[in-house]
Design brief:
With 288 residues, this protein is an alpha/beta fold. The chain folds into two domains: 7-208, Vaccinia Virus protein VP39 (Rossmann fold, 3-Layer(aba) Sandwich); 216-286, Helicase, Ruva Protein, domain 3 (Orthogonal Bundle). It is built from twelve helices and nine strands. The strands form two sheets. A seven-stranded mixed beta sheet has the order 4-3-2-5-6-9-7, with helices on both faces. Helix 11 packs across helix 12. The longest helix has 15 residues, at 272-286. The N and C termini lie far apart (64 Å).
Length: 288
């Protein structure tokens, strides 16, 4: 069905099915006709791709993805949307809707079953309240996907894509950059949605890394170090690291020296490579 980004069409479809927006599910449907085609164009690398869409809404983005991809599988938690999607997506034969909670879905199994022999990517207009949990699930499960293109709250986009050493960077920024190369693609104003949220959004793409950034053995410790360091980001690293990871301050200072860092280094000052070097130095001390 065309015209799904038209406000009158959205209201008519929802009225026909006696449906209102769900605040608990963070439902804000796109009504800017320029946004979804651009997400699909920039989010689907080629026509041979299979696409997982997390949360379909009434199918505005789904409709555009189907034009760009070989197959689209939408994972939608709201059962009230299923009959609407049957109507709005009836023009396409390369779409499958799975009624499920993506956080409880075995995505490895889904990819194996739905996209045999296909490269896979993820596209979504994510509800603000579940942005980080969904992204970290997609990344931490090391799915066979090439990229993740999502629309999120602008503040979240800035934080997720922040460069190490910048003011916006935090533990979640390092986690995202550990698994991917993130980039902000374009902004989306709050007026592009129905009902309009109070904040603007942005579309970001996470290009998933093909190889581990640090040794797999070191990975849990690396993340523990990052979380500890950013829990007191403006204090010298000796304080939060010694307090939370069980090292003496002297050991932390020794590891900082081994990593080529000054003893007064703070979390917000370190690059990804410097955090990795510090993790290696502390790991060596712990297992000496």
């Amino acid at each position: 069905m065309e015209g799904l980004s038209n406000i009158a069409t959205v209201k008519a479809v929802m009225a026909k099915h006696h449906m209102d927006f769900s605040k608990s599910l963070g439902q804000n449907f796109l009504v800017n006709p320029a946004v979804c085609p651009r997400i699909a164009k920039e989010g689907v690398p080629g026509p041979e791709y299979g696409v997982i869409e997390v949360g379909t809404g009434i199918g505005v983005l789904t409709n555009e993805l189907a034009k760009c991809a070989k197959k689209v599988v939408g994972v939608e938690i709201d059962s009230r949307l299923l009959p609407i999607l049957e109507e709005t997506l009836s023009d396409h034969d390369n779409i499958k809707i799975v009624h499920a909670d993506v956080m409880k879905t075995d995505l490895h199994a889904l990819i194996e079953e739905e996209f045999p022999g296909m490269p896979v990517c993820v596209c979504a207009n994510l509800p603000y309240y579940i942005t980080s949990p969904v992204l970290m699930k997609l990344l931490e499960e090391r799915l066979p996907i090439d990229c993740i293109t999502v629309m999120v709250q602008k503040e979240a986009a800035d934080r997720l894509c922040a460069l190490p050493g910048t003011r916006e960077c935090g533990a979640v920024s390092f986690a995202v950059r550990y698994y991917s190369e993130p980039e902000v693609l374009f902004p989306v104003s709050h007026g592009s949605f129905l009902p309009p949220p109070k904040v603007d959004s942005a579309v970001i793409r996470l290009n998933v890394r093909a190889q581990d950034t640090v040794r797999r053995e070191l990975e849990p410790f690396f993340f523990s170090l990052v979380r500890a360091a950013f829990s007191q980001r403006r204090k010298t690293l000796a304080n939060p690291v010694s307090g939370q990871l069980g090292f003496s301050k002297q050991q932390v200072r020794e590891a900082l020296e081994t990593a080529g860092l000054k003893p007064t280094a703070r979390a917000e000052e370190l690059s990804f490579e410097q955090f990795t070097a510090l993790a290696e130095a502390l790991w060596a001390l712990r297992h000496a």
